[in-house]
Amino acid sequence: MDVPAQTIGVEPSRRATPASRYRGVRSRRRHVRAACQLPRVRHQSGRELRGPAPQLTSAPGRRRPSIATHRFVVEIFRTARSQAIISSDGGNVRVTAGWLASLTVAAVIVAPAESIAVAATPTQASTAVVPLATGPQPGTFTGRGFDTCAAPSQTTMNAWRTSSPYGAVGIYISGASRSCSQPNLTASWVANQTSNGWRLIPIELGYQAPCGTRTPKMSADPTTARSQGVSAANSAANAAQALGIGTASTIYNDIEQYPSNASCRAAVLSFLSGWTEQLHVRGYLAGMYSSGSSGIKDVCEAYDNPSYARLDQIWIAWWNGVADTDAGSYCADAYYADQQRVHQYAGEVTETWGGVTMKIDRNYLDVRVTQTPPQQWTTTIDNSASGGFTASTAWGTSAYSGQRFGTDYRFTSPVSSSDVAWFRSTIPATGSYEISVWYPADPGYNNQTPYLVETTTGSRSVSVNQRVNGGRWVSIGVFTLAAGTGNKVGVSRWTSGTGLVVADAVRITRV
């Protein structure tokens, strides 16, 4: 997927200035979006009407049109083009007057004494224009897309937009494993492509499977891998925001093919859990790109596993040459079935459109924004957190188990008296919170470990078998917690069960 592109025989052309969308034209948004995806339309002169939106120019001695007027006319042009009701006369574009009268336009303000002419030839982009934040990417889209190692030039994007069958382009926005520099990838570039009708597929190419050959590798320890997933999500979200790629967009984590085995699978799934949960906290949807035989197979087999956070979308690398979203035997049709798939069906192919040649991977998308991820409040308290954990000297410290959260955990023997190890936190507001606990599992640990939760109606006790389900988050329920700082969750030694009692980490999430 991450192969440098080759651009050959680029024909000289003028760089078009894409027009910003005027968001006041609410009743015509659907037509405007469609205008960016419809086949080319010919008016009666025989010239094709597909490409950048027109620019506004002022008649001599007149004021330059306002931005609001500019955007208004651009929307009229795009909508008219989508309905094939444009005529041409000597290079001037005209829109049927009767159709204009039928428009319902909200809050369009036109300054007086403005003279507006729609020029058929686009003008040079102004470097003074500040790029606007884009909507969700790739958003709701069904159709063909391509990806290539480096974001193409504006000339290339213009040529392919007007002549190729593609409507989406994959861009590598972040990650230490990227092999190409990105001189073109800026906020202005992003704004230009989206205003021209392109859909963007943001990609993070960073940590790779611990059993694979590519670097940098994520940790083989699931706990550490999960933390790396959180870090990768923050890095990708920061990069997306810097480029103007807004929330509710899907960011795909590219994990290249790896020889899957049990330990490697656990690390990858834990990494993706951290990735997914943290992207949701940041307001983005979480996707993954991988080969059908490794990463996609693993996430689909874990689709109903509550120990791992479920991705929002998958991107299947399976070069079978068929432009659809089928994953064959790698993923059941019932999984990620609600417009949640991208299929890379061919790779490293050379294509020429509009006189410009590139080496690309071919993709077919059927995706949509299912919902804006919840802006959840969540906090994790480890036993080593300063000021967040207290326990008596009867609680020892160990790093024996590889299933631990962080560097170590606490343990002690059961007794017939209360000696609680407390996890302390600051709750932002009284409300419902899910409590999840993390511990290493071992046959020698307690099968009835009491967890205490301090709720608004008193202390609640939940018994957990610490001999099973270790090395992952285990939910013990949803409770009403009071706002403020204090001991919120504890582990008690007073139990009739046998084996050592362990206190490792607690996660509190508002629901």
TrEMBL record:
Domain Golvesin/Xly CBD-like: 380-510
Domain Rv2525c-like glycoside hydrolase-like: 158-364
Highest classification ranks of the organism: Bacteria, Bacillati, Actinomycetota, Actinomycetes, Micromonosporales
InterPro entries, per database record: CBD-like_Golvesin-Xly, GH, Rv2525c-like_Glyco_Hydro-like
Protein name: DUF1906 domain-containing protein
Source superkingdom: Bacteria
SUPFAM superfamilies registered for this protein in UniProt: (Trans)glycosidases (SSF51445)
Region called Disordered, residue ranges: 1-23, 42-64
First and last residue of the signal peptide: none
UniProt source species: Micromonospora arida
